[in-house]
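re: that chain from earlier
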Amino acid sequence: MPLVTDSDVKQILDTNVDCTPFINAADLLITQSLSMSGLSTAMLTEIERWLAAHLTCMMDPRETSKAMGDARVNFEAGRLGMGLQATRYGQQVLLLDTSGTLAAQGLRRTTFQVF
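^ sequence. v structure.
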């Protein structure tokens, strides 16, 4: 059962997107990766909230700048393989996970070798 709700995520993320699918995914990752990390339930809850926000932003990117003349809008655009570094929310997840577990998993998933 998720530790956070849609309204919890929307306290830190301004979006009209239903965050529930992203909360469910974040909860699975937290449960499987961090349940034995020694982090408190309060910390796991915060990590789950920020992770759900990160996952939501993969579908609903954040604006990084606007301009009036010539009407330009720039969006936060992570590149393939950036993992949690792709959004400011994912970067907070890495900061909050003092066990380093998610950072270590991210490194494994974004590297490869060619033989």
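Strands lie at 63-66, 73-75.
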